[in-house]
Amino acid sequence: MTERIVVVGAALLDDGRLLAARRSAPPELAGRWELPGGKVEPGETPEAALVRELREELGVETETGERVPGEWPLRAPYVLKVWTAHLLPGSPAPKPLQDHDELRWLTLAELWDVEWLDQDVPAVQKIEGRLRLP
């Protein structure tokens, strides 16, 4: 059995809103929306990978919160795991630096206004439940 490679996704939350990132590449994913993140490098913790990926992709400084329960298969051997994250005080606003051409902060009412990548849908559903909590 091949070893699974973890891809971390960030449920980047700010003031009750979730950040969605529109893919610009590869062509088969372009135009669909996802939770930003990326692959965990060898020797790296998922939390450290998330902070690094958000810095590289969005130019932001963040801290990870709690893990969103569950994991979702991507194309083999990748598996998606999601953590909540928050911008650190003084962090610049997110910008689409790499692999994305648009970012949107979505309120609970707007969460399904974008076409999420299939593998991100179950994670977004779990996050939706959290956003509904008082």
From TrEMBL:
<dbReference type="InterPro" id="IPR000086">
    <property type="entry name" value="NUDIX_hydrolase_dom"/>
</dbReference>
<dbReference type="GO" id="GO:0008413">
    <property type="term" value="F:8-oxo-7,8-dihydroguanosine triphosphate pyrophosphatase activity"/>
</dbReference>
<dbReference type="GO" id="GO:0006281">
    <property type="term" value="P:DNA repair"/>
</dbReference>
<keyword id="KW-0479">Metal-binding</keyword>
<dbReference type="GO" id="GO:0046872">
    <property type="term" value="F:metal ion binding"/>
</dbReference>
<dbReference type="InterPro" id="IPR015797">
    <property type="entry name" value="NUDIX_hydrolase-like_dom_sf"/>
</dbReference>
<dbReference type="GO" id="GO:0006260">
    <property type="term" value="P:DNA replication"/>
</dbReference>
<dbReference type="GO" id="GO:0044716">
    <property type="term" value="F:8-oxo-GDP phosphatase activity"/>
</dbReference>
<keyword id="KW-0460">Magnesium</keyword>
<dbReference type="InterPro" id="IPR047127">
    <property type="entry name" value="MutT-like"/>
</dbReference>
<keyword id="KW-0378">Hydrolase</keyword>
<dbReference type="InterPro" id="IPR020084">
    <property type="entry name" value="NUDIX_hydrolase_CS"/>
</dbReference>
<keyword id="KW-0227">DNA damage</keyword>
<protein>
    <recommendedName>
        <fullName>8-oxo-dGTP diphosphatase</fullName>
        <ecNumber>3.6.1.55</ecNumber>
    </recommendedName>
</protein>
<comment type="similarity">
    <text>Belongs to the Nudix hydrolase family.</text>
</comment>
<feature type="domain" description="Nudix hydrolase">
    <location>
        <begin position="3"/>
        <end position="131"/>
    </location>
</feature>
<keyword id="KW-0515">Mutator protein</keyword>
<dbReference type="GO" id="GO:0035539">
    <property type="term" value="F:8-oxo-7,8-dihydrodeoxyguanosine triphosphate pyrophosphatase activity"/>
</dbReference>
<keyword id="KW-0234">DNA repair</keyword>
<dbReference type="Pfam" id="PF00293">
    <property type="entry name" value="NUDIX"/>
</dbReference>
<dbReference type="InterPro" id="IPR020476">
    <property type="entry name" value="Nudix_hydrolase"/>
</dbReference>
<keyword id="KW-0235">DNA replication</keyword>
<dbReference type="GO" id="GO:0044715">
    <property type="term" value="F:8-oxo-dGDP phosphatase activity"/>
</dbReference>
